[in-house]
Amino acid sequence: MAGIVASILLFWGLGEKYLWQDEANTAVLATRILRFGRPLAYDGVNLLTIDHFVGEDVVNIEKRTADPNLSVRYYVDHGAYKADTAWTFHPWGQFFVAAASFKILGQTTLAARLPFALAGLATILLLYRLVRAHCRSDSMAWIAAVLLIGNSYWILHSRQCRYYSLSSLFLILTLTAYMRWQSGARWGATTFVVCAWAWFQVDYGTVWPVFGVLSLDACWTNRRNPWRTLCAGVVLGAMIAPFTVFYHLTGRASVQGGGSSRDPNYRYWFSVLNMNEYVVPLLVVTAAAALLVWRWKTISAAERRLMAIASGIICALSLWVPTITSDAYLRYIIMAAPIGSLLSAWLLVRGCNGRTAYAWVGAAVLILTPWLRMPLQVLNPPASWYVINKTATNWMYKGELVRLLTEVFNPPPDPNRMVVEWLRQNTQPTDEILVNYEDTPLMFYLPNPIRGGIEAFRVEDDAKKPPDILVIRRSVAFVHWNIFAREINRYRWSVAPVGAPDVVWGNNPDPMGDAQEFASANRIIVARRTESGTTRGVVFGNAQE
Question: d(Cα 360, Cα 139) in Å, to the nearest integer?
């Protein structure tokens, strides 16, 4: 039954909503693997960047917006790509997974998301096996799997064409392989090294704190025979080392966000808050640690090790992620949700001394209500943007459950689908489209040259041809509006009645996406350049939508 529910939540309507900006980044780079053999940021027409407005150098941006070669050189010089524009900001694993799916199924929305949803389903099954194998409890294994299925934001992220579910999958695979290795299983060390290396290839940011926790456990467990740990560590390090150089990891520093996100205290607090709200409540982690100490001598060595490692992973990620990331997004820690489910299931079953009915009641409380995560909010209330999020304002039930069911079975209007379908029907492949944000989905779905985006690529490159089509979201604050305004005001535009809601993001799976009001939003401006259209300044003035 749990597998059926998981499959419905992961696969139902998977191809209905079009890819949003982050998903399309993965999909476009995957298509370029099929064309060029590697994920190139620039294909000679359209440019992908890391989409970080604060990191943009505005000193000479006017020159870059009119010259594509200067733009490409700027990002190469700043270490965003290799000299041939091969992408290095993320490891290539997710791109090859998507490329394989496109090769088999064609370049569709469903093909883009399907392998990642399958990875999510595999994670649930492997979590069940991991818990059952090392804790010797069917009820605990079932509860862990059900808790993960009931994690709304983990499901939403697993439905994305992005590395999140792959990272969760390889986290569980790596932990499973590690436990087999430490139990003396045949080829245990080899399996662990392979799984850990593969995980690095899909998420090279999250692996380090987990490697650290596993290293500490291995060194302590094998302190009388350190060579066993040292050999595996050396082999894994030698396999990873060339890629740390290739991806520029040794000299990379995170580009911090704007406003309060520049404050490390803000990032650490919100990392803990996200962990508490959507991965595992801090109260559960604390109680599990206390119960582990109390029951240390009465449970098996494998169970002790697994729970100690799980607790260590949650603590290490809470400190590591805000140290290396640019902001406090849930997407940076959601891959740890299986570990949170594991800890919670263990606490419920062992805390209830095998009374399965009580453990299931506790699981229902964790899935349906926010009660166990509320103490942290009382100690330090969330910031204003977080309170706006509807998932944080209801104390009787988790608001994100409503969002999950809505997104899966009755999603709100999809601005990206509405815009793309209009463009498909009303443009020629040679028409140049000027767009201020959600530019990457247009690159995936359309053959047109795409100008603009956060990096303002070719916004003012009119030497050969001015833009033919305008797509503007006025809800977006993190673009170079002065550049767009200058270009838009050079021409006259005729606004088309597309009717797409002007919200910042399309299918954004983070809690911030829940704060978007689709019904009351303005409309995205889609316009065609014309000789006798509305007056200049259509974006900022009085265009009838």
Answer: 9
Alpha-carbon Rg for the chain in angstroms = 24
Q: Same structural domain for residues 142 and 159?
A: yes
Question: Which residue is listed with tokens 């476009």?
Answer: 28
Which among 157, 74, 82 is positioned nearest to 123, based on CA atoms?
157
pLDDT in tens, 443-502: 999 999 999 999 899 999 998 899 999 999 999 988 889 999 999 999 999 999 999 999
Whole-prediction pTM:
0.93
Sole residue written with tokens 């694993």? 93
How many structural domains is the chain composed of? Answer: 2
Residues 362 and 442 in one domain: no
Q: Would you give the distance in Å from CA 198 to the centre of its chain?
A: 18
What pLDDT, in 10s, does the model give residues 266-324?
778 888 888 999 999 999 999 999 999 999 989 999 999 999 999 999 999 999 988 88
Contact call for residues 160 and 22 (beta carbons, < 8 A): yes
The residue out of 388, 408, 428 marking a domain boundary is 408
One DSSP character per residue, 385-447 reads: HHHHSGGGS-SSS-HHHHHHHHHHHSPPP-HHHHHHHHHHHH--TT--EEESSSHHHHHHH--
